Amino acid sequence: MEPVTATLTKPTIAALALLLAACATDAPRSARAPAERPRNVLADIRNEAANYRADFQIELIRDAAIIDAIEASKQAEMRGDRVAAEAALRNALDDPEAKQRYAELLLARGKAAEAERLAREAYEASAKLGEWCARSWLTVAEARLLQNAPNGAAQARARVPECKAPQVDRY
Predict the structure, then answer these.
(1) CA 109 vs CA 67, 82, 137: distances in Å
(2) For residue range 83-135, what is the model confidence (pLDDT) as tens digits?
(3) Model confidence over 10-43: pLDDT tens digits?
(4) Labelling 157: which of 47, 81, 140, 141 has CA 20 to 30 A away?
(5) Measured CA angle at 111 (ends 40, 129), to 5 deg
(6) 115 near 104, Cβ under 8 Å?
(7) Among the listed residues 97, 28, 92, 108, the one whose alpha carbon sits nearest the alpha carbon of residue 58
(8) Neighbouring residues of 104: CB distance < 8 A, sequence distance ≥ 6
(9) DSSP annotation of 160
(10) What is the reported pTM?
(11) CB 118, CB 143: distance < 8 Å
């Protein structure tokens, strides 16, 4: 068999070079949208409920052990240790604030049904005014959203304005 020889003309070489160059370039890339930060449901609930702080607070007379449990839970949460924050509250669930805090922590873990139940119980045992009232209803609303109950969530959210404490006239 005889070797095959081919003669390449300048236009053929130029066309081949263009084809190879086209294969070597990167396709234009579309700009990627920045990754959306995950929502911090606890911060959202607490920030919105802060709007319902009143000029006065109704404070319960608490056992020292409950005060310590709530404080230990706060400290654990500030360290980012939600497991320890939950554990600190487990024996203090007779207190409405401790129960509400525990409900929020459960909600953050996706335990919506239990979080809703505890938030409603916390509301029933509370003064039904102010920030803690709002936190309870906002927790119920978020729990219902997680349970695919948007109408129930809207009903719970509609209860939040009822938590506004009356204006105190000062003379």
Answers:
(1) 24, 9, 18
(2) 999 999 999 999 999 999 999 999 999 999 999 999 999 999 998 999 999 99
(3) 665 655 555 555 655 555 555 565 566 678 999 9
(4) 81
(5) 70
(6) yes
(7) 97
(8) 42, 45, 46, 115, 119, 135, 139
(9) G
(10) 0.76
(11) no
Structure-token match 């700009």, residue found: 31
Q: What is the pLDDT of residue 23?
A: 58
Place of tokens 């068999």: 1
Q: Counting every residue, how long is the chain?
A: 171
CA atoms within 13 Å, Cβ hemisphere of 163: 28
Structure tokens at 95: 């207190």
Q: Find out whether 68 and 74 touch, Cβ atoms under 8 Å.
A: no
Where would I find the H helices in the chain? 10-24, 41-49, 64-78, 82-89, 96-108, 112-125, 130-146, 150-159
Mean pLDDT of 48-71: 88
The residue assigned the tokens 């506004």 is 164
Across 42-59, b (16+ Cβ under 10 Å) vs e yields beebeebbeebebeeeee
**Amino acid letter, residue 79:** R
